[in-house]
Amino acid sequence: MSLLVARGLSKRFGGLLAVAELDLTVDPGEMLGLIGPNGAGKTTVFNLFSGFLTPDAGDVDFRGRSIVGLSPHAICRLGLARTFQIVRPFPRMTVLENVRVGALVLHPRVPEALDRARDVVERVGLGARQDVAAGALTLAERKRLELARALATEPALLLLDEVMAGLNPTEIETIIQLIRGIHASGVSILLIEHNMRAVMALSQRIVVLSFGERIAEGVPAEIANHPKVIEAYLGEEYVRAAPA
């Protein structure tokens, strides 16, 4: 049985149809990429899955039950966590305190939440920075903190919204290895990312959106050579530059 199932999912903002009758599944243990041009509806899909928006039509099932209409924190408690494209930690709180907030979702006792937070901070490579205020972190460190806050909720499914945006190649490679480690630990991942080399390297399957509609789905090699995807998003330059 699929971990997450979206059926006929639609969302309109005034005259703009942001998501149009989307069907999408994420299987247990899967790493699924969700790509498309800016404005394709990708982050809207994440907002619909995580309870920040309610669909105008369609349904979303997670772990066998509908989550439409549930609050974001209720969905998080069920095991679906997300990161945000624009990282906004609590700037005056330390790294450890920020991650403890996430851990409190499932561990309401502070000592237990702190133990969980320490484990996650070490896991993302911020152990030496755990007592530093989040506002003093570099962008790359804030990205790892964002991952840590989501991981502290102990998700079964993690939605990652452009966690590599703005990073240099070395920092991107660090994040790729972190994501691989998270996935290897048993967490299913749905990934939005504009770094195509990272998406192609990480994803087992890719869904492509354009103007709110799914235009393609398949394994990375199929997507990289799909005529509609090349026209709408990748461009001929990507195809020519891609390794054989």
Describe the model.
The chain is of the alpha/beta class. The chain has two domains: 1-79 and 158-213, 3-Layer(aba) Sandwich (Rossmann fold); 87-154. It contains nine helices and ten strands. The protein has helices at residues 42-49, 72-78, 95-103, 110-123, 139-151, 169-184, 196-202, 220-224, 227-241, and strands spanning 4-13, 16-26, 31-35, 57-62, 65-66, 80-82, 157-161, 188-192, 205-210, 213-218. The strands form two sheets. It has a six-stranded mixed sheet with strand order 6-7-8-3-9-10, with helices on both faces. A four-stranded antiparallel sheet has the order 2-1-4-5, covered by helices on one side. β7 (157-161), α6 and β8 form a beta-alpha-beta unit. α4 (110-123) crosses α5 (139-151). The chain starts with a strand and ends with a helix. The relative contact order is 0.17.
Task: Outline the secondary-structure elements.
Layout: E1 4-13, E2 16-26, E3 31-35, H1 42-49, E4 57-62, E5 65-66, H2 72-78, E6 80-82, H3 95-103, H4 110-123, H5 139-151, E7 157-161, H6 169-184, E8 188-192, H7 196-202, E9 205-210, E10 213-218, H8 220-224, H9 227-241
Parallel strand pairs: 3-8, 3-9, 6-7, 7-8
Antiparallel strand pairs: 1-2, 1-4, 4-5, 9-10
